[in-house]
């Protein structure tokens, strides 16, 4: 499957003028605690503060000029809404964002700042899908899914690709698992650009749909999702699940306390702001130390958009 | 005065193996807000989390082997206590730290982690000085002042020196003002390594002793110091004041709200953890925008040691 390799390289080249190449940081102290050599790919320093900028940019660039003119639409209340808005604005494309009317005002304001046009609707999935459909019909805009879209997946995969370019000898790559876009892209990058590099997921035990999906072989859902890792409450989709099933070695579940401890460690010791979802990958490494002992491990820090009024410490 | 120039270079070379060369970060968005081009020298990424590591290391390295063997002593409840402890530990030198018995347990624990030997005493200056004197007599250790010591001042100055090496065309360098060690060192670096680069201080209006000292021409004190910039409550000393008087262009006073706003901007937009004292320099730039309009401005981010249980937002 040489094509996936070439495809990832093509995507990296395509989005490169529109995104930051983010730095890779290390911490002697966290290495000592983990008993491994960790390399943090800092997508919290990405434009808009998260890796989602990569996938959004790629999805828009991949549209025809005619489709670009008509715009893009998505439903999201999180980072993808902001990412699609900013990517669209940078590329001079209209962005229509469907948000639940219950979404925090601060998130709506952020989308507006980035130029997204918000349509509010009731917060059920059915309402959001219907609203997005209506906008598509009215405007001719193209729907872009936050995680279950191959262009988005390949875009997200470029974060892992860059990390492997900087550190080709990584033995394991650890990614948080939410909707599955980031880990599916990372798994492809590890497979096609690593030297026998495994891809492992970290997931909150409170929203362990992906862990159960790997067990059962079909896409599972969460009945509840009481986790501070609010970017990881979503479930896998039919585009990313087959990739995850084939290329992800294992998913490690972590408790809320594990997440908070890892979050605090990153903030206190690395002096960088990362969102709780980002700490889940480090939490997985610290939970199963034997699995990672003395290994070179890449860790995807997914983003840094934090609501400071709701800190867990 | 070629000697100060040579002296600074010698110090930079001497401490270089023992400290990090910290990165210089920029933010497009904060540039837009400020109307200037800002370069942040990130000493929050320094070892131990603050620039104080530089001065402490230089002061110890400058002692004779015999004096090093007998150790160093200081009284401090802040970053300098931790810096002297870690610098001493790295250089295999005993460090005696006098701390008020009222100091937070978390600060005492940090000093112990870095190998400092704590002696507690009542929190008056008189008690602290007497305790430090007694330890000097008993152990033969050398007293190192956190800011009013020429070796410490020159050590701190290397942060500005590195910034000017990276960006030789800076027109203004802005430093927070507390005990005066950092700004005195920065002013010397600007004078001897800048191209007509001015040095300006930022100071909390609630602890504006340095601003008043520049006006009156003598060292003033603070009767109260109700500021979240807790590293800036201290006053100038006879070693650093003459340097500040001669080489610092101006001190800009900022309100507590100015500091909080600048702090939030750095956390939210740059995604880095800096302590409130560090935000005072940016607050000064944002307060007097006309003074900095369209200029290339270096900003010293002094440190990133934050008590997360006492955040102002």
TrEMBL record, chains A, B:
Q: Which GO terms describe its molecular function?
A: ATP binding; L-serine ammonia-lyase activity; magnesium ion binding; pyridoxal phosphate binding; serine racemase activity; threonine racemase activity
What keywords tag this UniProt record?
Lyase, Pyridoxal phosphate
Residues crossing the lipid bilayer are none
Asked whether the UniProt record includes RNA-binding among its keywords, one would answer no
UniProt-listed GO biological process terms: D-serine biosynthetic process
Which CDD domains does the UniProt record give? Thr-dehyd
| Keyword Electron transport appears in the UniProt entry | no
Domain (Tryptophan synthase beta chain-like PALP) ranges: 15-303
Q: Which cofactor does it need?
A: pyridoxal 5'-phosphate
* Family statement drawn from the similarity comment of this UniProt entry: Belongs to the serine/threonine dehydratase family.
Q: Which PANTHER family match?
A: SERINE / THREONINE RACEMASE FAMILY MEMBER, SERINE RACEMASE
Q: What is this protein identified as?
A: Pyridoxal-phosphate dependent enzyme
Per the UniProt record, the source organism is Christiangramia oceanisediminis
């Amino acid at each position: 499957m040489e094509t996936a390799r070439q495809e990832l390289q093509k995507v990296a080249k395509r989005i490169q003028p529109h995104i930051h190449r983010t730095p890779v940081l290390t911490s002697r102290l966290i290495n000592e605690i983990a008993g491994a050599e960790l390399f943090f790919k800092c997508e919290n320093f990405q434009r808009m503060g998260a890796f989602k900028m990569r996938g959004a940019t790629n999805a828009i660039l991949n549209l025809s000029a005619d489709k670009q003119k008509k715009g893009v639409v998505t439903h999201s209340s999180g980072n993808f809404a902001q990412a699609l808005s900013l990517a669209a604005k940078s590329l001079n494309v209209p962005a229509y964002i469907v948000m639940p009317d219950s979404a925090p005002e601060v998130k709506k304001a952020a989308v507006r700042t980035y130029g997204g046009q918000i349509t509010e609707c009731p917060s059920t999935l059915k309402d959001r899908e219907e609203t997005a459909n209506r906008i598509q019909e009215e405007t001719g805009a193209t729907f872009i899914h936050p995680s279950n879209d191959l262009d988005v997946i390949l875009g997200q995969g470029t974060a892992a690709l860059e990390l492997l370019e900087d550190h080709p000898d990584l033995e394991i790559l650890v990614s948080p698992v939410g909707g599955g876009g980031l880990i599916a892209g990372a798994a492809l990058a590890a497979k096609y650009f690593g030297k026998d590099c495994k891809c492992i997921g970290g997931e909150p035990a409170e929203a362990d749909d992906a862990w159960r999906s790997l067990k059962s072989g079909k896409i599972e859902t969460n009945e509840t999702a009481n986790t501070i890792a609010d970017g990881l409450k979503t479930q896998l989709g039919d585009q990313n699940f087959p990739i995850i099933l084939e290329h992800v070695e294992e998913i490690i579940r972590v408790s809320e306390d594990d997440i908070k401890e890892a979050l605090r460690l990153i903030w206190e010791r690395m002096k960088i702001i990362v969102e709780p979802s980002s700490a889940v990958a480090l939490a997985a490494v610290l939970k199963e130390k034997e699995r990672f002992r003395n290994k070179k491990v890449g860790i995807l820090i997914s983003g840094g958009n934090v609501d400071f009024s709701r800190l867990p410490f």
